[in-house]
Backbone:
């Protein structure tokens, strides 16, 4: 039986790849896509979600636009990673279609209420929409939240924090305190999902959409080459989507995660009590290892099936 999924994203190269993986996966019943500011402004990330859906003829998937800024912090976008459009690299025409709503919170509530089974939320951007939804409607009808964000060991926006959590730490704190089943796929596992030249080549041989993903990766690699010296880019958000549908792909530990909101230096740090150094109750399943071969096997096969 397929898994009802709502994808909350800020496309973004790796968000776009996560969306394509969802569309290509028979395990997923994609109920809709909500968008947030993050990798670029809300206007651009929403346009990008529509452009990707149009690329593969899936205009039937409804898109609702959400937050244009964090709950309390200043808006900062990741143009230095994802470019001016938020999806720089391959040529994509502007969208022909439009979002069905500009109220992602109500859209999420409606889609969850209409679903016959509990829904998996997959947030792959800052958590503002999800926090607002939980504050307004609670977690009824949500099976689990499988999110890309945070890290045990390192940061990418700052030395202490990963971008999605750093962008809106107050929203992240609401999500991690929700009592819902949370899966956190952070940099510890997503930095193992480096899409390098060998995988690019396999994607190019897998057809038109494979070529598109390879072209996305060429642009996405620029930043990672300059910053880390890597010959490839981490496909962060697709790891979250893959974990939601394939048991055993990511090894997790069940432990406490708190979000740092006071310190400026450590803003947005996910304080992960991996070794149970406190009495704080476990509230998240935190990714610690990725089966890289299986992940890329799945991604390339599924993207190839899109044509
Ligand atoms: C996260 O931030 C964005 O740049 C990516 O899309 C991903 O969701 C990685 O820190
Ligand atoms: Ca993202």
Residues:
């Amino acid at each position: 039986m397929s898994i009802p999924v709502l994808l909350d994203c800020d496309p973004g190269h790796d968000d776009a790849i996560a969306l394509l993986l969802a569309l290509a996966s028979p395990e997923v019943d994609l109920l809709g896509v909500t968008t947030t500011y993050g990798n670029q402004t809300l206007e651009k990330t929403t346009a990008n979600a529509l452009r990707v859906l149009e690329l593969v003829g899936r205009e039937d998937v409804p898109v609702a636009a959400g937050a244009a800024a964090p709950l309390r912090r200043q808006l900062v976008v990741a143009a230095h990673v994802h470019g001016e459009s938020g999806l720089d690299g391959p040529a994509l025409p502007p969208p022909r279609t439009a979002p069905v709503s500009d109220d992602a919170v109500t859209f999420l509530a409606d889609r969850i209420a209409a679903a016959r089974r509990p829904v998996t939320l997959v947030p792959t951007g800052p958590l503002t929409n999800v926090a607002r939804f939980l504050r307004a409607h609670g977690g009824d009808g949500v099976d689990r939240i499988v999110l890309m964000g945070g890290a045990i060991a390192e940061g990418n926006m700052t030395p202490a924090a990963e971008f999605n959590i750093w962008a809106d730490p107050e929203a992240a704190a609401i999500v991690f305190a929700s009592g819902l089943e949370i899966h956190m796929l952070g940099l510890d596992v997503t930095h193992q999902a480096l899409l390098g030249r060998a995988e690019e080549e396999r994607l190019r041989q897998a057809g038109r959409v494979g070529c598109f993903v390879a072209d996305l990766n060429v642009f996405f690699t620029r930043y990672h080459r300059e910053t880390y010296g890597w010959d490839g880019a981490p496909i962060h958000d697709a790891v979250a989507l893959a974990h939601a549908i394939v048991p055993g792909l990511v090894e997790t530990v069940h432990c406490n995660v708190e979000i740092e909101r006071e310190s400026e230096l450590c803003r947005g740090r996910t304080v992960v009590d991996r070794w149970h150094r406190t009495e704080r109750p476990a509230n998240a399943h935190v990714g610690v290892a990725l089966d890289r071969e299986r992940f890329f096997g799945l991604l390339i096969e599924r993207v190839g099936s899109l044509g």
About this structure: The chain is about 40% helix and 20% strand. Residues 12, 14-15, 39, 78, 81, 124-125, 148, 156, 162-164, 236-237 surround beta-D-ribofuranose (ligand 1) (CB under 6 Å). The longest strand covers residues 28-35.
